[in-house]
Write a sequence for this structure.
Protein backbone atom coordinates (compact mmCIF):
# COMPACT_ATOMS: atom_id res chain seq x y z
CA UNK A 1 0.00 0.00 0.00
CA UNK A 2 2.77 2.44 0.86
CA UNK A 3 4.65 1.71 -2.38
CA UNK A 4 1.47 2.35 -4.37
CA UNK A 5 1.01 5.73 -2.70
CA UNK A 6 4.62 6.64 -3.48
CA UNK A 7 4.09 5.75 -7.13
CA UNK A 8 0.86 7.75 -7.18
CA UNK A 9 2.68 10.80 -5.87
CA UNK A 10 5.34 10.42 -8.56
CA UNK A 11 2.65 10.02 -11.22
CA UNK A 12 0.89 13.17 -10.06
CA UNK A 13 4.20 14.97 -10.31
CA UNK A 14 4.58 13.70 -13.87
CA UNK A 15 1.10 14.97 -14.78
CA UNK A 16 1.95 18.37 -13.36
CA UNK A 17 5.22 18.36 -15.32
CA UNK A 18 3.42 17.51 -18.58
CA UNK A 19 0.95 20.33 -17.96
CA UNK A 20 3.72 22.85 -17.26
CA UNK A 21 5.72 21.75 -20.32
CA UNK A 22 2.62 21.92 -22.53
CA UNK A 23 1.67 25.36 -21.25
CA UNK A 24 5.19 26.73 -21.73
CA UNK A 25 5.40 25.17 -25.19
CA UNK A 26 2.19 26.70 -26.49
CA UNK A 27 3.07 29.99 -24.85
CA UNK A 28 6.36 29.97 -26.76
CA UNK A 29 4.35 29.46 -29.97
CA UNK A 30 2.57 32.75 -29.35
CA UNK A 31 -0.54 31.80 -27.35
CA UNK A 32 -1.51 33.77 -24.27
CA UNK A 33 -1.04 32.06 -20.86
CA UNK A 34 -4.79 31.35 -20.61
CA UNK A 35 -4.99 30.02 -24.15
CA UNK A 36 -1.83 27.95 -23.60
CA UNK A 37 -3.33 26.36 -20.47
CA UNK A 38 -6.63 25.72 -22.30
CA UNK A 39 -4.87 24.17 -25.30
CA UNK A 40 -2.75 21.94 -23.02
CA UNK A 41 -5.74 20.62 -21.09
CA UNK A 42 -7.84 19.90 -24.17
CA UNK A 43 -4.87 18.18 -25.81
CA UNK A 44 -3.87 16.01 -22.84
CA UNK A 45 -7.44 15.00 -22.07
CA UNK A 46 -8.10 14.27 -25.79
CA UNK A 47 -11.26 16.39 -25.70
CA UNK A 48 -10.29 17.71 -29.11
CA UNK A 49 -12.30 20.89 -29.52
CA UNK A 50 -10.12 22.90 -31.89
CA UNK A 51 -6.77 24.59 -32.12
CA UNK A 52 -6.76 28.16 -30.91
CA UNK A 53 -4.31 29.17 -33.66
CA UNK A 54 -3.10 27.89 -36.99
CA UNK A 55 -0.55 25.17 -36.23
CA UNK A 56 2.55 24.81 -38.28
CA UNK A 57 4.89 21.81 -38.46
CA UNK A 58 6.56 22.52 -35.09
CA UNK A 59 3.25 23.02 -33.32
CA UNK A 60 1.87 19.79 -34.79
CA UNK A 61 4.91 17.73 -33.73
CA UNK A 62 4.78 19.27 -30.27
CA UNK A 63 1.06 18.49 -29.97
CA UNK A 64 1.53 14.85 -31.02
CA UNK A 65 4.30 14.31 -28.48
CA UNK A 66 2.21 16.04 -25.82
CA UNK A 67 -0.77 13.79 -26.58
CA UNK A 68 1.29 10.60 -26.27
CA UNK A 69 3.05 11.64 -23.08
CA UNK A 70 0.03 13.33 -21.53
CA UNK A 71 -2.53 10.61 -22.20
CA UNK A 72 -0.23 7.80 -21.00
CA UNK A 73 0.68 9.74 -17.87
CA UNK A 74 -2.92 10.61 -17.03
CA UNK A 75 -4.10 7.03 -17.58
CA UNK A 76 -1.27 5.68 -15.44
CA UNK A 77 -2.12 8.14 -12.68
CA UNK A 78 -5.82 7.30 -12.86
CA UNK A 79 -5.03 3.58 -12.62
CA UNK A 80 -2.89 4.12 -9.52
CA UNK A 81 -5.59 6.25 -7.92
CA UNK A 82 -8.17 3.51 -8.45
CA UNK A 83 -5.71 0.95 -7.07
CA UNK A 84 -5.18 3.00 -3.91
CA UNK A 85 -8.93 3.31 -3.33
CA UNK A 86 -9.59 -0.38 -4.00
CA UNK A 87 -6.66 -1.54 -1.86
CA UNK A 88 -7.77 0.70 0.98
CA UNK A 89 -11.33 -0.62 0.84
CA UNK A 90 -10.12 -4.19 0.48
CA UNK A 91 -7.73 -3.84 3.40
CA UNK A 92 -10.47 -2.34 5.55
CA UNK A 93 -12.85 -5.15 4.56
CA UNK A 94 -10.31 -7.90 5.21
CA UNK A 95 -9.26 -6.28 8.49
CA UNK A 96 -12.88 -6.05 9.61
CA UNK A 97 -13.51 -9.69 8.73
CA UNK A 98 -10.37 -10.76 10.56
CA UNK A 99 -11.38 -8.71 13.60
CA UNK A 100 -14.89 -10.22 13.52
CA UNK A 101 -13.42 -13.73 13.50
CA UNK A 102 -11.12 -12.86 16.38
CA UNK A 103 -13.97 -11.35 18.39
CA UNK A 104 -16.19 -14.38 17.77
CA UNK A 105 -13.61 -16.61 19.48
CA UNK A 106 -12.92 -14.46 22.54
CA UNK A 107 -14.82 -14.90 25.81
CA UNK A 108 -14.37 -13.99 29.45
CA UNK A 109 -12.87 -10.68 28.35
CA UNK A 110 -13.34 -7.11 29.51
CA UNK A 111 -14.99 -4.60 27.19
CA UNK A 112 -13.40 -1.17 27.70
CA UNK A 113 -15.64 1.60 26.35
CA UNK A 114 -13.72 4.81 25.72
CA UNK A 115 -10.08 5.01 24.65
CA UNK A 116 -9.14 8.11 26.61
CA UNK A 117 -6.62 8.39 29.42
CA UNK A 118 -8.75 6.31 31.79
CA UNK A 119 -9.50 3.62 29.22
CA UNK A 120 -5.83 3.34 28.25
CA UNK A 121 -4.73 3.02 31.87
CA UNK A 122 -7.37 0.36 32.59
CA UNK A 123 -6.46 -1.67 29.51
CA UNK A 124 -2.74 -1.49 30.30
CA UNK A 125 -3.27 -2.77 33.84
CA UNK A 126 -5.57 -5.56 32.65
CA UNK A 127 -3.03 -6.55 30.02
CA UNK A 128 -0.30 -6.82 32.65
CA UNK A 129 -2.61 -9.12 34.59
CA UNK A 130 -3.10 -11.34 31.54
CA UNK A 131 -6.75 -10.38 31.13
CA UNK A 132 -8.07 -10.13 27.54
CA UNK A 133 -9.45 -6.73 26.52
CA UNK A 134 -11.72 -5.51 23.72
CA UNK A 135 -11.74 -1.75 23.09
CA UNK A 136 -14.79 0.21 21.91
CA UNK A 137 -14.45 3.80 20.69
CA UNK A 138 -16.24 5.94 18.14
CA UNK A 139 -13.08 7.67 16.87
CA UNK A 140 -11.26 5.46 14.34
CA UNK A 141 -8.14 7.63 14.43
CA UNK A 142 -7.85 7.37 18.20
CA UNK A 143 -7.76 3.54 18.12
CA UNK A 144 -5.57 3.26 15.02
CA UNK A 145 -2.56 1.97 16.98
CA UNK A 146 -4.41 -0.10 19.59
CA UNK A 147 -3.00 -3.62 19.91
CA UNK A 148 -6.18 -5.05 21.44
CA UNK A 149 -9.21 -6.12 19.40
CA UNK A 150 -11.16 -2.98 18.52
CA UNK A 151 -14.77 -2.20 17.65
CA UNK A 152 -15.27 1.24 16.12
CA UNK A 153 -18.72 2.55 16.92
CA UNK A 154 -21.01 4.26 19.41
CA UNK A 155 -20.69 2.39 22.72
CA UNK A 156 -24.17 3.53 23.80
CA UNK A 157 -25.72 1.36 21.07
CA UNK A 158 -26.57 -2.28 21.79
CA UNK A 159 -25.33 -3.32 18.34
CA UNK A 160 -21.86 -1.95 19.07
CA UNK A 161 -21.63 -3.71 22.43
CA UNK A 162 -22.82 -6.97 20.89
CA UNK A 163 -20.16 -6.61 18.19
CA UNK A 164 -17.61 -6.45 21.03
CA UNK A 165 -18.88 -9.81 22.31
CA UNK A 166 -20.48 -8.42 25.45
CA UNK A 167 -22.70 -11.51 25.78
CA UNK A 168 -19.54 -13.56 26.36
CA UNK A 169 -17.63 -10.94 28.36
CA UNK A 170 -16.95 -11.14 32.07
CA UNK A 171 -16.79 -7.42 32.77
CA UNK A 172 -17.47 -3.98 31.33
CA UNK A 173 -15.61 -0.72 31.85
CA UNK A 174 -17.67 2.40 31.03
CA UNK A 175 -14.97 5.07 30.68
CA UNK A 176 -16.52 7.51 28.25
CA UNK A 177 -16.17 11.27 28.69
CA UNK A 178 -19.72 12.02 29.83
CA UNK A 179 -21.67 10.55 32.74
CA UNK A 180 -24.81 10.31 30.60
CA UNK A 181 -22.98 8.17 28.03
CA UNK A 182 -21.61 5.92 30.78
CA UNK A 183 -25.14 5.58 32.16
CA UNK A 184 -26.41 4.38 28.76
CA UNK A 185 -23.50 1.96 28.42
CA UNK A 186 -24.16 0.53 31.88
CA UNK A 187 -27.87 0.07 31.20
CA UNK A 188 -27.21 -1.56 27.84
CA UNK A 189 -24.52 -3.80 29.27
CA UNK A 190 -26.77 -5.00 32.08
CA UNK A 191 -29.62 -5.76 29.67
CA UNK A 192 -27.38 -7.65 27.25
CA UNK A 193 -25.49 -9.63 29.90
CA UNK A 194 -27.15 -9.71 33.34
CA UNK A 195 -24.19 -11.57 34.85
CA UNK A 196 -21.73 -8.89 33.77
CA UNK A 197 -19.51 -7.17 36.32
CA UNK A 198 -19.52 -3.51 35.35
CA UNK A 199 -17.43 -0.56 36.51
CA UNK A 200 -18.49 2.95 35.52
CA UNK A 201 -16.62 6.23 35.56
CA UNK A 202 -18.34 9.24 37.13
CA UNK A 203 -17.31 12.87 36.88
CA UNK A 204 -20.07 14.33 39.05
CA UNK A 205 -20.98 13.21 42.56
CA UNK A 206 -24.69 13.17 41.74
CA UNK A 207 -24.01 10.66 38.96
CA UNK A 208 -22.74 8.00 41.36
CA UNK A 209 -26.13 6.79 42.67
CA UNK A 210 -27.63 7.00 39.17
CA UNK A 211 -24.94 4.76 37.74
CA UNK A 212 -25.32 2.35 40.65
CA UNK A 213 -29.09 2.20 40.08
CA UNK A 214 -28.44 1.59 36.38
CA UNK A 215 -26.60 -1.59 37.28
CA UNK A 216 -22.96 -0.61 37.81
CA UNK A 217 -21.34 -2.89 40.38
CA UNK A 218 -18.73 -0.24 41.10
CA UNK A 219 -18.68 3.48 40.36
CA UNK A 220 -15.33 5.25 40.30
CA UNK A 221 -14.63 8.96 40.44
CA UNK A 222 -11.02 9.34 39.16
CA UNK A 223 -10.74 12.82 40.66
CA UNK A 224 -11.59 11.60 44.15
CA UNK A 225 -9.26 8.61 43.84
CA UNK A 226 -6.48 10.86 42.63
CA UNK A 227 -7.02 13.26 45.53
CA UNK A 228 -6.99 10.41 48.07
CA UNK A 229 -3.82 9.02 46.56
CA UNK A 230 -2.10 12.40 46.69
CA UNK A 231 -3.09 12.80 50.35
CA UNK A 232 -1.76 9.31 51.13
CA UNK A 233 1.63 10.20 49.67
CA UNK A 234 1.76 13.09 52.13
CA UNK A 235 0.34 11.36 55.23
CA UNK A 236 1.64 7.80 54.65
CA UNK A 237 4.21 8.02 51.84
CA UNK A 238 5.92 4.68 52.41
CA UNK A 239 2.66 2.74 52.78
CA UNK A 240 1.19 4.39 49.69
CA UNK A 241 4.27 3.72 47.61
CA UNK A 242 4.46 0.10 48.77
CA UNK A 243 0.83 -0.49 47.79
CA UNK A 244 1.46 1.14 44.41
CA UNK A 245 4.46 -1.07 43.77
CA UNK A 246 2.67 -4.24 44.87
CA UNK A 247 -0.50 -3.54 42.91
CA UNK A 248 0.73 -1.89 39.72
CA UNK A 249 4.46 -2.25 39.19
CA UNK A 250 6.84 -5.14 38.63
CA UNK A 251 9.88 -3.92 40.55
CA UNK A 252 9.07 -6.11 43.59
CA UNK A 253 8.68 -9.84 43.51
CA UNK A 254 5.62 -9.68 45.77
CA UNK A 255 2.15 -9.42 44.29
CA UNK A 256 -1.35 -9.26 45.71
CA UNK A 257 -4.03 -11.53 44.29
CA UNK A 258 -7.52 -12.85 45.01
CA UNK A 259 -8.89 -16.38 44.64
CA UNK A 260 -12.46 -17.67 44.59
CA UNK A 261 -12.96 -20.93 46.49
CA UNK A 262 -15.20 -23.27 44.45
CA UNK A 263 -17.67 -25.47 46.39
CA UNK A 264 -15.74 -28.60 45.31
CA UNK A 265 -12.36 -27.21 46.43
CA UNK A 266 -10.31 -29.12 48.99
CA UNK A 267 -10.23 -25.91 51.02
CA UNK A 268 -14.03 -25.54 51.32
CA UNK A 269 -15.16 -26.17 54.89
CA UNK A 270 -11.65 -26.31 56.37
CA UNK A 271 -10.10 -23.85 58.77
CA UNK A 272 -7.05 -21.81 57.85
CA UNK A 273 -5.08 -23.78 60.41
CA UNK A 274 -6.07 -27.12 58.86
CA UNK A 275 -5.48 -25.87 55.33
CA UNK A 276 -2.04 -24.57 56.35
CA UNK A 277 -1.93 -22.29 53.29
CA UNK A 278 1.24 -20.55 54.37
CA UNK A 279 3.15 -23.82 54.48
CA UNK A 280 1.47 -25.32 51.42
CA UNK A 281 1.84 -22.36 49.10
CA UNK A 282 4.12 -19.79 50.71
CA UNK A 283 1.49 -17.05 50.27
CA UNK A 284 0.25 -14.98 53.19
CA UNK A 285 -3.53 -14.68 53.58
CA UNK A 286 -4.44 -11.06 54.35
CA UNK A 287 -8.24 -11.31 54.35
CA UNK A 288 -11.26 -13.39 53.48
CA UNK A 289 -14.44 -12.05 51.95
CA UNK A 290 -17.67 -13.96 52.37
CA UNK A 291 -20.24 -14.27 49.55
CA UNK A 292 -22.37 -11.55 51.21
CA UNK A 293 -19.47 -9.09 50.90
CA UNK A 294 -18.22 -9.05 54.51
CA UNK A 295 -14.43 -8.86 54.94
CA UNK A 296 -12.52 -10.75 57.62
CA UNK A 297 -9.14 -9.08 57.91
CA UNK A 298 -6.14 -10.75 59.51
CA UNK A 299 -8.10 -14.01 59.93
CA UNK A 300 -7.11 -16.42 62.69
CA UNK A 301 -6.37 -20.10 62.27
CA UNK A 302 -9.88 -20.99 63.46
CA UNK A 303 -11.52 -19.09 60.60
CA UNK A 304 -13.42 -21.42 58.30
CA UNK A 305 -13.04 -21.20 54.53
CA UNK A 306 -16.51 -21.45 53.07
CA UNK A 307 -17.49 -22.12 49.44
CA UNK A 308 -17.21 -18.96 47.33
CA UNK A 309 -15.09 -17.24 49.93
CA UNK A 310 -12.61 -14.86 48.32
CA UNK A 311 -9.06 -15.34 49.59
CA UNK A 312 -6.94 -12.21 49.37
CA UNK A 313 -3.27 -13.09 49.64
CA UNK A 314 0.18 -11.65 49.03
CA UNK A 315 3.29 -13.48 47.86
CA UNK A 316 5.62 -14.11 44.99
CA UNK A 317 4.30 -15.15 41.59
CA UNK A 318 5.17 -18.78 42.37
CA UNK A 319 3.48 -18.59 45.78
CA UNK A 320 0.30 -17.20 44.30
CA UNK A 321 0.37 -19.75 41.49
CA UNK A 322 0.55 -22.58 44.04
CA UNK A 323 -2.29 -21.05 46.05
CA UNK A 324 -4.41 -20.77 42.91
CA UNK A 325 -3.83 -24.43 42.09
CA UNK A 326 -4.68 -25.36 45.67
CA UNK A 327 -8.01 -23.51 45.59
CA UNK A 328 -8.93 -25.23 42.32
CA UNK A 329 -7.95 -28.71 43.55
CA UNK A 330 -11.03 -30.88 44.03
CA UNK A 331 -11.66 -32.79 47.21
CA UNK A 332 -11.61 -36.54 46.79
Amino acid sequence: MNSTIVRLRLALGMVATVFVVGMLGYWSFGLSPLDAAYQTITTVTTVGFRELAVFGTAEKWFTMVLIVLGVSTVLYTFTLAVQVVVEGQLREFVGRRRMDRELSKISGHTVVCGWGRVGRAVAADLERSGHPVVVVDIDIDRVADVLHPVVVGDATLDSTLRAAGLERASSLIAALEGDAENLFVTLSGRSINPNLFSVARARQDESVPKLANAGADRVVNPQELGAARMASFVARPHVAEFIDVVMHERSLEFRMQEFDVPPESVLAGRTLKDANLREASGALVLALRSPDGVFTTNPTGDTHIQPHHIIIAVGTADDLHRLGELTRRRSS
User: Anything to note?
Assistant: The radius of gyration is 33 Å. The domain at 254-328 is CATH 3.30.70.1450 (Alpha-Beta Plaits).
